[in-house]
Amino acid sequence: MVDWSHLVLPAVLAAVFVFIASSLIHMVLQWHKSEYGKLQNEDEVAAALRKGGASAGQYVFPHCADHKQAASEEMKRKFRDGPVGMMILRQPGDMKLGAFLGKWFVYTIVVGLMAGYVARSTLKPGEHYLAVFRVVGAVSWMAYAWQSPAESIWKGKPWIGTVRDLIDGLIYAALTAGCFAWLWPR
Prior knowledge:
Elements: H1 5-29, H2 42-51, E1 57-61, H3 67-70, H4 73-81, E2 85-89, H5 97-122, H6 129-145, H7 148-155, H8 159-183
Antiparallel strand pairs: 1-2
């Protein structure tokens, strides 16, 4: 069995590569930029949310307390008339990108360690490069990307965003898998 100490370097190295790749994807290529629209009356909507006392959290509208309420004519009308949606609000304050990036980097390390754990549990030292790549790549891709289809199914996220997330995740998974396969104990 592969010792845990052999998983740390590839996990950290993969995290660095994934961090760089995600920075390039989001800040240089900006191919997710078109997924986010701007409300034409953004200031009015923000004012209405403040007036309504909305705080940080996840919201759904129209909101149904139970199935009985969902079956009422009034609620059916609200769904027909729209808008229908989900909304996540953050705490107000200055945008501190460093905190987000720090959490993202920690997440990439955790993904690498979990993928390494699965590989450690299923592969032996000296395994062929492609065997390690397949296991770590599959686990990493699941961690990085496969929540996105559920967001399209249940939350209405546009499918083009999900396709892009799956491609991003595949890139991150390939980088993670490559690091582990390259540094796998012989």
